[in-house]
Amino acid sequence: MLATRKLRHRMLIAGGATLAVAALLTGCTSGPTTDVGPTNNTDNEGTGESIVIGFSGPAADHGWLGAINSAAIAEAAKYPDVELKVAEGTNDANLQISQVEGFINDGVDAIVLLPTDGAALTDVAIKAMEAGIPVINVDREFSSTFAARVTILGDNYGMGVSAGTYICEQLGGQSDAVIAEIAGLDFLPLTQDRSRGFADALGDCGLEVSNRVAADFTVAGGESTTSQLLAAAPKIDAIWNHDDDQGVGVLAAIAASGRDEFFMVGGAGSANAMREIQSGTSVLKATVIYPSTQAADGIRLARLVAQGKSLSDLVEIEVPNRIVLNAPVVTAENVDKFIDTAFES
Fold this sequence. Notes:
Layout: H1 2-29, E1 51-56, H2 63-77, E2 82-86, H3 93-106, E3 110-113, H4 122-130, E4 135-138, E5 150-153, H5 156-171, E6 179-183, H6 189-204, E7 209-214, H7 219-232, E8 238-241, H8 244-257, E9 263-268, H9 271-279, E10 284-289, H10 294-306, E11 322-324, E12 329-330, H11 335-338
Parallel strand pairs: 1-2, 1-3, 3-4, 4-5, 5-11, 6-7, 6-8, 8-9, 9-10
Antiparallel strand pairs: 10-12
Helix pairs in contact: 2-10, 3-4, 5-6, 7-8
C-alpha cells in the first residue's frame, strides 16, 4: 500500500511538471497565443481554465477561524475561472471526512482543507490525492506527506520564538524575572510548538517560564485560567498569551485583579489586541502575528496547481510543496502596518 501511495503521489506531481514543461515548449515553438490558461505558466492573474475548488474548515466559533473562512471565500471570488464549493464548517472530524469524500465524488479539481484534526483527516486526504485531486493542507498538518500536494502553515514555533525574543529584549538581562505563559489547548501540536519556541527563546537569554496555564482558545477559558494564574503568582514581570481571542478574557481577568506590574504579549494578531497596543494604557504591549490569510493563500495556490501554473516570483516551474508564513511582532511602533488587515475577535 505504501509503495502504491508513493507511486501515485509521484505520478500526481510528475503530471504537474509535465504540464508545466509542455507549456514552456508550447511557448517556444508556437508563436503568439491568446490562451492564458495552463499553458501560460507565469500569467497567474489572467483568466485560465475554469476549475472547481472544494473548501472545508472547522466551525467559525473563533474570531481567527471566522477570518480564515471569510478570507478564503473572498479570495475565490476574485477569479472568474474559479467555482468554490464551501462545506459547512464543523468541529466533527467524521463529518469533515464525509465532506471531503463528497468533493472526491463530485470530481472537484482541487481541495483546500483546514482539518479539525490533521491526523484524523489524513486518510481521506490521501484518498483524494490518489484520485488525482491535489489537496492543499492549511494550518493543521496531516500526519503523512502523501496527503497533500501543498502544505501552507503559520509558524507556531516561530510565534513562540518571536514572543520570547521580545520579552528578553524588554527585560534586559533580569535573570530573576518571573515569566508566565497562558497557552491554548495543550493536546494540539500547534500549542506544543508555540510553547517549545517560547522556552527556547527565553533560554537564550537565561530566562524560563515560572508559571504556566492552558486555556482553550475561548474568552471564558482565557478569563478563568488567568484568574487562577494571578491568584497563584503574586509577582509577574511578563506574560505571553498564545491567542488574542482568548486574550479578551485574559485582559478582563487582569482588569478585575487590578494588577499592572507586568507587560503582556499576545498571539495571532487581532484588531482589538492592536487597538489595545495603540492605546498606550494597556498591559498588552505587543502581539505576534499568526496569519488569518492561510486559507485564502490556499485557494490561490490550489488555483495555480490545478491550472498548472507556478509562483511567478520563483524560477522553479512548480508551486512549492511546503510554505511557512512569517510570525512578526506587532508593537506600538509598527501597528499601523498591520491593523487594517487584522481580524476582529
